[in-house]
Automatic annotation (TrEMBL):
Any one GO cellular component localisation term in the record: plasma membrane
Family listed: Belongs to the G-protein coupled receptor 1 family.
One example of a Gene Ontology biological process annotation: positive regulation of MAPK cascade
Domain G-protein coupled receptors family 1 profile as annotated: residue spans: 60-373
InterPro entries linked: GPCR_Rhodpsn (IPR000276), GPCR_Rhodpsn_7TM (IPR017452)
Membrane topology of this protein: Multi-pass membrane protein
Major site of localization recorded for this protein: membrane
Annotated compartments: Cell membrane
Membrane-spanning parts: 44-69, 81-103, 118-139, 160-180, 200-222, 317-337, 357-376
Protein name per Swiss-Prot or TrEMBL: HTR7
Amino acid sequence: MVAVKIDTPSSLSLSSTIHPNSSNYSLNGETNDASSASSLWTNVIVSIILTFMIVGTVIGNALVCIAVFMVRKLQTPSNFLIVSLAVSDLFVALFVMPLALLYEITQRWQLGNELCDAWTSLDVLLCTASILNLCMISVDRYLVITRPLQYAMKRTPRRIALLITVVWLLSALISIPPLFGWKKVRKSLECGYSQELGYQIYATVLAFYLPCTIMITVYYRIWKVSDRISKAEAKSKVGSLETPAPYNNRPKTSSDSGDMHLYPNGSLRTSNADGDDGALEILPKNRREKRRFTIKSFLLKRNKIYSSKEKKATKTLGVIMGGFIACWLPFFILAVVRPVCLTLELKCHVPQLVNSIFLWLGYFNSFMNPLIYARFNREFRTPFREILCCRCRGINIRLRTESYAEQFGPDPTLQATQRCSLRIPNESTVRYNSQGQTLVHVGNGSTASDGESKL
C-alpha cells in the first residue's frame, strides 16, 4: 500500500509505506538538504561581498580623515565638512553595518529589544548625518561660487564647526523619537525601523526629501553659474588673442645697425642689414613696469588655476549628488510605502530580497563617497596614494613641491634664484639674479654686471 500526501502547493511531502517490509521512504530529506546547501552558499557569497564593502568603507573614510589631518593644504573650511561626512560614513561601517550583516544572514534578532532600539536609532542618526552633510557641502559650494567675496569673510572655521554641530543635532532629533515610544510593537525576533506612519513622514521628509530637494536646486544653480563663467572666460580668451596688449605705448625704435622692436615681455629683437636676426632678453630700465607686468601675469595664471579647481570641485559634487540620489531614493520610497500599507491595511507584499537590496544600496553610498574623491579630486588622490604607500614623512613638502611645479615649472629652486635665462646667437647668456641685477655671461667666460654693461 502506497500513500501519497501533499501538504501545500509549494511543498511536496512524499511518504511510501510498504507493509511487508514495514519500511518508510521519504524524498523530503533530500529536498531539505539541497535547499540547505544552496542557502549556505548564498549566505557565504553574500557575507563575503558585504564584508568587503564594510572593510572598504572603513578604509576609505579613514583615509579621508587622516589625509585632512596630515596635509596642511587640505585643512580648509570646506574640507571640514567633508571630514564630518567621512566620520558619519565611518561610524556607519563600524557600528551599523556589522549588525545589519548579522541580521541579514540569520534573518532573526537575538540580541534583545534594548540593543535593537539602540541599533536602529544609531542607524538613523548616522545615515541622516551623512545625508545632511552632503546637503551642507552642496550649499557651501554654491556660496563659494556665487558669492566668493562676501562668503569668504564669513566662512571661518568656527562657523563651519557651528554648521557641523547643527547637522548632528538635527540628525539626533530625527533618530531619537522612537526611543520615547513613537513606534509600533514589533514581533518577536524582529528588529527594524519604526513603522508608525507619522514618524516615517516626519523622518523621511527631514532626512531625505527636503535635503534632496535643496541639493538638486543648489546644484542646478551651480551648473548655471559655472556655465556662464565658462562662456565669459572663452569670450575673454578670444578677445585677448585678437587684441595685443599695449606696453606703456612705447614706440618702435631704430638704430644705425638695424630695426629694434621692444615687446611687452621685455625682449629686444634686432634685425640688421646683413639679414641676421638676433633676440636679446633685457631687463627694462623701469623695473616697476616689469614688476607690474609680472604680477599681472601671475594673477591671471593663478585665477586660471583657481577656476580649474572650482570646476573640478563642482564636477565632484555632481557625481556625489548623483550617487547619493541613486543609492538612497529607492530605500526612502519604500520607507513611506510600507507604513502606509500597514496603516490602511492594504495587502502590500514587499519581498525580503527587495528590502535587503534597498537597505544595502543606501549603505553603499558610504562606501562610494571616498572612491569619488579619490577618482575626481586630485587634492585627495595624491595624499591617499602617499598614505597607502606608507610615505607619510615629508608628505607636506612633496605635495607643496608638486603644486609649485604645476604652477611655475619643474624646478622651484632654479625659478627662485634665477629669474630668466636665455641663449643669444653669439653664445652669451643674460641672467637676472635674486637682487634684480643683470649679469651677462659672454662666450669667452667673462661676466659683466649692471655697473659694467647696460643693455
